[in-house]
Write a structure and sequence with these properties.
Layout lengths: L2 H14 L6 H12 L4 E2 H10 L6 H13 L4 E4 L5 E4 L8 E5 L5 E4 L4 H11 L11 E3 L5
Helix pairs in contact: 2-4, 3-4
Bound molecules: zinc ion (3 copies).
Length: about 140
C-alpha cells in the first residue's frame, strides 16, 4: 500500500470515529508504512528514536492499534507475548514460521491455503473469513 493511499484510508477511518488526524499519528503512520519487515510497537519506537523522533509510547501503541482496525496494518503473533505488525500487500500473501530457539522468522508461502480455508469455511456456512496461523519449529542454524 502506498503512503498516500494509507493516509487517505486512515483519515477516513478517524473521521468515521470522530477522531482527528494529528501530527503524531501521521508520523507513526509514515514510519509504520515505510517499515519493510514485521515490527513490534517497541521496535517501531526504537526506529523512530533512531530517526530522532520522540512520541509517547501510549500514542504509538494506540495509533498502531487503530491502523490495524482501519485495515492499513496486519498483526502477526509470533508467540513473543506482544503483537507484531506488517504493512499488508507489500509482499505476496504469506504465512510466518518462527524458530522456537532463536526467534528467527521466515516468510513461507503455502499453496492454495486461502482457497482451502475459504472453501472449508463456506461449507460450514461462514462468511467474512479471517484466519491466523502460528507455525513454529527449529531453524537450520539451531
Ligand atoms: Zn517480538
Ligand atoms: Zn533458530
Ligand atoms: Zn510477513
Amino acid at each position: 500500500m502506498d503512503l498516500e493511499k494509507a493516509i487517505k484510508i486512515y483519515k477516513d477511518f478517524l473521521k468515521s470515529k470522530g477522531l482527528l488526524y494529528t501530527q503524531p499519528r501521521e508520523i507513526v503512520l509514515k514510519e509504520a508504512i515505510s517499515a519493510t519487515w514485521h515490527f513490534s510497537a517497541d521496535e517501531l519506537i526504537l526506529q523512530m528514536h533512531n530517526h530522532g523522533i520522540s512520541i509517547s509510547r501510549a500514542t504509538v501503541y494506540r495509533t498502531l492499534a487503530s491502523m490495524k482496525e482501519a485495515g492499513i496494518l496486519n498483526s502477526v503473533d509470533f508467540g513473543h507475548g506482544h503483537i507484531h505488525y506488517e504493512a499488508p500487500k507489500a509482499r505476496k500473501q504469506h504465512e510466518h514460521i518462527s524458530c522456537e530457539k532463536c526467534g528467527t522468522i521466515c516468510e513461507i508461502q503455502i499453496e492454495n491455503l486461502d482457497k482451502a480455508i475459504n472453501s472449508a469455511a463456506a461449507k460450514a456456512k461462514f462468511k467474512h473469513i479471517q484466519y491466523a496461523i502460528r507455525i513454529s519449529g527449529v531453524c537450520e542454524k539451531c
